[in-house]
Predict the structure.
Amino acid sequence: MEPAEIIQHSGGAIGAAWLMIALPLVGAAVLLLGGRRTDKFGHLLGVLMAVASFVVAALSFVQLLGLAPGERRRGIELYDFIPGLAKVGLLVDPLSISFCLLITFVGSLIHIYSIGYMAHDPNRRRFFAYLNLFVAAMLLLVLADNYVALFVGWEGVGLASYLLIGFWQHKPTAATAAKKAFIVNRVGDFGLLIGIFTIFATFHTLAFDGVLANADKASSGTLTAIGLLLLVGACGKSAQLPLQSWLLDAMEGPTPVSALIHAATMVTAGVYLIVRSGPIFLGTETAQLVVTIVGVATLLAGAIIGTAKDDIKKALAGSTMSQIGYMVLAAGIGPAGYAFAIAHLITHGFFKADMFLGAGSVMHAMNDEVDMRKYGALRKVMPVTFVTFLIGYLAIIGFPLLSGYFTKDGIIETAMEHNAVLGWLAVLGAGITGFYMSRLVFMTFFGTKRWEPTAHPHESPAVMTVPLIILSIGAIGLGAFLILGNRFMTFLAPAVGAPEEMPSFHPFSLTGLVTLALVAVGAALAWMKYGRAEVPVVAPRGSFLTTFARRDLYGDALNEALFMRPGQWLTRLAVFFDNRGVDGLVNGLAAGIGGTSGRLRRVQTGFVRSYALSIFLGAALLAGAWLVVGNL
Amino acid sequence: MGESITFWVLAVVSVIAALGLVFSRRAVYSALMLGVVMLSLAVLYAVQDAPFLAAVQIIVYTGAVMMLFLFVLMLVGVDSSDSLVETIRGQRFWAIVGGLGFAVLLAAGIGNAVVGAPRGLTAATQAGNVPSLAELIFTRHVFAFEVTSALLITAALGAMVLAHRERSEPKPTQKDLSRQRFVAFGRTGKNPAPLPGPGTYARHNAIDMPALLPDGSVSPLSVNRYIARYEESQGILPPEVARVLEQEEAAQRANGHSTPTVADEARDGGPDTEPMAEEGPVEEGVVAGRVVSARADARSEEDGK
Amino acid sequence: MTTHYLVLSALLFAIGGVGVLVRRNAIVVFMCVELMLNACNLAFVTFARQNGNLDGQLIAFFVMIVAAAEVVIGLAIIVTIFRTRRSASVDDVSLLKY
């Protein structure tokens, strides 16, 4: 089934879709320009704008549902950016509205949670301004109807991410992490930018409808190039191999940021880009293959990193990488995988945000301690956090009937049909997920107390637990709601297309059973090692493999060796060349002229008779010359 | 024939005089040599049908300009610059090379400019030399002539402006000068009385004779040290003067003073220490140069204060 | 015959030039300049005779006038310099240098 035509739209909630972007943007502007005067109500305004944005998104969604499925792609023209070349408009279709709902809903909950989490931070107002800025940019990214506006949003979320990772910039680690995230993202953005240039050179337009409808007319080579360049952009933003290194360091930011930006929304922008540009990837098997390979490699890499991290947030970040790897894998497969990719994205947005916020709640209770080896036995002290976290945990490992079970299983089944190797690797990843997530839960909530003497854990206030509860409800039921009866696939079909034959859900397929068995084995291993046995407070040295995983698979070392050090050498070489070569030339010239002048000026002795002598000799010479010439 | 004799005599004289002008050590001799050259040239003008110019040459150059030179020479006096020792390296060598080259080139150049026999001025000066010149000056060249008058007036004014010195304080009267002398006496013990004239009590009325005090001894103040030194070198220093000088030196050594230098005496400015320009050979000239430079030092010290 | 006058004029001019270059007393230098001017005048007078018109004598006359003015001003300058520097040496006036 092919995607539907885009219909120009005006009126109603969809016509006012720009409000979704404008409201948080206004909030950010007021909070940033208003300065300390807005300190008192800043957090409330931020929450209000996020919620208002959600309301517009929800109304648009309702209006969209009221339309016939074939008419659900609505374009809203805003203005001519470059007349005849680039119009700026919004595209409200099932794909973008799904994202809008996720962003605004989870975003609103995290805004609310942040009121409590950031209560004691003197810069809370600025934090909310950045959050609002992020929401606006992210909505622009998903609502844009062309690649330029998408790129503006893309850069906007990058900026917000940078600002929020480095929000506690007084910590050198945070400042460095922010810089690292920004620089690594630049690499990806550069790829995306060149991809956009190539798109324009090929299709002479940047609007989605113009590009995607004509994608099959371009040559396969061009499409491969565009696809790979877009993939580079997606890798940068979604922390896929080989541009994954920034995500783990990005955990230096406040935990709500990690939940919103580095788990639920921004890092999924790459998946959105691949799904949105689906027709381009469909035209090139090479690019599709590369996408799936990147996805599988990342889901395994993230899972392996997750097994070794003692920092609760970094373990969750590894898990995020891994889960996005699943989504990218699904997105690389084509229309059969799109729905699962997006569905997993949405459910992941819920349960990962749930777990991140749960982790934040734990940290809040433990004096911002992040080392899981110093947790333990928190289930009784923090019952609400524990239960919600447990739900998120069960959802992510694919416990039957919870969200992750449906969406991840869908991805694995689709991958298995597409390519058995990819499928089995995905199954293996699911098994590792079972191990590391269980390890995380056992180390945090079970076992013995290994707290620091100063820690007095307590349950977080309602403003933090209520969002947890809401998110965990989503983590329970959303998967079943979306997947059963192919509800979500049918809904998305007008936007991204759908396979001719709708997949049917088999609760007891072979793959599903093997997956469940592997997950159970992983969880059991984790129980043996971290649940029943005593967890050492200081991490044991571990084998080579442990070190390998702890060092993020030597990603940073690789980057340093391949790019940073040669870059530094190159800079030093340039500096040397500038100092010795360019400056040497200029200075040498100046010194030469200066030295010559210094010697020449000695001719000016000040003695009139010397000057007279030179005049006299000159006159004699002239007379001689005159005689010679005159006699010729 | 007559012209040839005149020319050859005057040419030789003028060239020798010109060389004398350049190479004589004393500026006064140079001036006199210049006068010889100018007079020779005046005669050569006259020989060449230019009686008016000959007259003007004598009146203006030998008369006015030479006098002016001599006046200024007297004003400036003997100077270290009269020394013929060259101070700029290579200057003399290149000057002579240039001079020889110029002479040869000019001789070759304008010496060959003449073609054929001279036409003579008989045709051009039928009304006489002066009226013909006057006609030219007041008809064709009248504007240039008027301009030269402006030039001369400007030059006269310029000379006045340059030579004029504005007095910044009233001229000291004799009373002021006397008071100054006694102030100096009170401060340094300098004798306020005029220096004794040479030979006041002497048997001879000559400048080299020291004055005698009433008791018949020699007054040290009156001893002219230049003359004393000259006489010492010649071995004709009168014994009484030598004794006085020795006593003075001994006394000054006892007082811890150094021997008074020529410069010190020059600064004292007594009539007996006036340098004798016309006296003695080379060394004298150098000494005189030192006197002048010492004066210049003193002046610059005053300026510094 | 006129050639002899011209050669004499050239000789006197060159001698004057050498004098300007080797003498340090400003007044003597000035005299040497006068010598050079006189040598020029001799050449003018000779050319007047050679060419049979009075223009040469006329220009010699003007040269004399200008030389007279020049002497007045030059000597005044020398006196002024001597008054301030107590020296008539052209080498002493050498502050304007490197």
Q: What stands out?
A: DSSP finds eleven helices and no strands in chain B. Chain B has a mean pLDDT of 77. Chain B touches chain C through 91 residues (CB under 8 Å). The two ends of chain B are 70 Å apart (CA to CA).
